[in-house]
Amino acid sequence: MNKIIKIVLVVLGALSAILWYQLPGRDVPASEAVGSGAMNFMFIITYLLLGFAVVVSLVFTLKNLFANPKSLKKTLMVIGGFVVVVLISYVLASGTDVSIEEMAGRGIETSESTIRRIGTGLNMFFLLVLIAIAAMVMGAFKNMTNK
Between 37-67 and 2-21, two packed helices, what is the crossing angle to 10 degrees? Predict the structure, then answer.
């Protein structure tokens, strides 16, 4: 299996090197360079490798997660805490922070639900920053009091 992976990587490397030299030069307009077959094929290779890496990392993460029940319980608690942060953020977001008419006057079509989702994202960011700061302070305080 290891030999097959090495052969595939060597072939992909050689193919990528060939495609690199077939890329359009700097003097080619961007509209023509985008349609280059070499560039499109390089993007396909990149997406395939990225997808493979994501799938492999998820499979091994889930395998290790289910192999240890203690870590599974801890992971589920973290996911539950994140869901609580999302719910709190959604409740705190009003959706009326910005005037829809003013945004439409600037050429930005939006709705109250869009504004509420943006507010939820901002609230989540701020809550998670506060949680991270609190965790660092508690950890530092715990280290100072243990010595």
Answer: 150
Residue pair 90/121 in contact (Cβ under 8 Å)? The answer is no
Q: What is the pLDDT of residues 63-114, one digit of tens each?
A: 888 888 888 899 899 999 999 999 999 999 887 777 777 777 887 777 888 8
Is the four-CA dihedral 112, 118, 122, 128 of positive or negative sign?
A: positive
How many CB atoms sit inside 10 A of residue 89's CB?
Answer: 19
Contact criterion met (CB below 8 Å) for 116 and 95:
yes
- Structure tokens, 83: 């869901």
Tokens found for residue 113: 């639900």
Quick check: 47 and 41 in contact, CB under 8 A? no
Amino acid (one-letter) located at 23:
L
Beta strands in 17-142 (DSSP E): none
